[in-house]
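Retro notes - structure team

What went well: the batch runner handled both jobs without manual restarts.
What didn't: labels got mixed up in the shared folder, which is why I'm recording both outputs here explicitly, each with its sequence directly above its tokens.

Job 1
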Amino acid sequence: MPKIIAEPKKQIEKAAREELADKGIGNLSMRGIAKRCSLGVGTIYHYYPDKLSLLTDLLDEDWQKKSEEAKEKIQTASNLDEDVTIVLTAIEDFRSQSSAIFHSYQTDDFPAFYLKLHPFFVKSILSLWDCIKTKENVTVDPEIDEIIAELIILASRPSSISKPVLLQSIHKLVS
């Protein structure tokens, strides 16, 4: 009779985080994760076809937490500039928290990583932007929403557009 595993995906994610902390991303392996959570490697691959999928899910979970925190802070912010600053801070905190993963994929398989993660990230920033628009009573075309989301992502990258330029651009786009 097959063994019944309670919440295998959570076990896998927990083991992956422990492996990352203990061994670093360079030594992260599906076999090591399987051993740590006492599951077969096939079970790991059933949930995650590759390491990139697993890491993307871990990042997704981490970003969702940061995003929820940002939404709460936006509700108490006093103006549009403060709202956008909260989103930028959430992105910077997330990047810092996940720097080992981001750094690894910037040198190895960044195009695949970017293509998998970027659409999700844009959608998530749009969700935060929707909170800001509702709170600040701002109405813009949906195409402008996407431009603003991309500008926020761009401004969160080191050596990119500055926060004052971002804020000025957003004010022009929403006026």
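Job 2
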Amino acid sequence: MVSDLGHVRAMWADDRASAGLGIECLDVRHEDGLGAATARMPVTESMVNGHDICHGGFIFALADSAFALACNAGGSLTVAATCDISFVTAARRDDVLVAVARERTTYGRNGITDVTVTRQSDGAVIAEFRGRSRSVGAPTAARTSAPALECRPGSHRPDGDH
């Protein structure tokens, strides 16, 4: 089911977890039957662990947010069933990370989405994430008709403005 992405934008507007981490939705689309999305997150001082690198949980959260945008782009309410991440290199304070998510396949109510997280400044791969999704139904009428945030740079800024 292909939609106008209004339900995805409404989902994003209500996503307090991503907003609290300063994650921005740069792009979300549905092409050739598959979803794709790009999200960005600055690594702040509060995200750095005792090794002076970005805590892996924050990198996972960025990848998971991009995964959610991409796998919901097809028009069905979709949630994660399982996911895993491989950390390739460290991210550090003041890095800006970019997550590019692409659905690889959908079958029945299931899907597989890959997300690559890179450092914006040099394109270095920080992590590779694979999510397996499960569609649980159509978005509610309120979700598809609610005024919604456009996915654009600056959405979910750390200061709380949308």
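One thing worth noting from job 2: The first helix runs from residue 6 to 13.
We'll revisit the folder naming next retro.
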